[in-house]
């Protein structure tokens, strides 16, 4: 990542491309070796690219012939020197070979990035979804203004 004006937006584009291609190496390369991820699926947190690679390989491997389209909404970011932080609403849509949507969900994402040796890497990622007070279930479909 070398775009100095919008590292978070550039990172999201690379993230989307890696997910669509189901390219574990390209996906994990976006992250700092000592990344800390607060993922909303399965565990409280993951530390380091080895743990993140294992999660990514499981995710991409579970898709079979399906691909996942990621779209970002309400993207906002701030850059301060060698650090950047951004947040967005992400839509993940699993599609079949013909491009038909099979299922979809949304979540919130926040990324902290650090520039080192001219490259931006994700040092922290946090994904979440709001929880319905009555059912205690995650709300996985976003409505603008929500």
Calculate the terminal CA-CA distance, rounded to whole Å: 32 Å
Number of domains: 1
Query: Poorly predicted ranges (pLDDT <50, ≥5 residues)?
Result: none
| Global Rg | 15 Å
Tally of DSSP β-strands: 6
Helical content stands at 10-25%
Strand arrangement, major sheet: 2-1-6-5-4-3
Shape: globular
CATH architecture: Roll
Instruction: Count every helix, treating DSSP H or I runs of 4 or more residues as helices.
Output: 3
The averaged pLDDT comes out at 92
Question: Beta-strand level of the residues, as a percent range?
Answer: 35-45%
The third-level CATH topology is: Nuclear Transport Factor 2, Chain: A
Helix/strand-derived category reads alpha+beta
Task: Please explain how this structure is put together.
Strands 2-1-6-5-4-3 form a 6-stranded mixed sheet, with helices on one face. It has a single domain (7-128), classed as Roll (Nuclear Transport Factor 2, Chain: A), CATH 3.10.450.50. The N and C termini lie far apart (32 Å). It is built from 3 helices and 6 strands; from the N terminus they run ααββαββββ. A hairpin with a 7-residue loop joins β1 (31-38) and β2 (46-47). The radius of gyration is 15 Å and the shape is globular. It has 146 residues and is an alpha+beta fold.
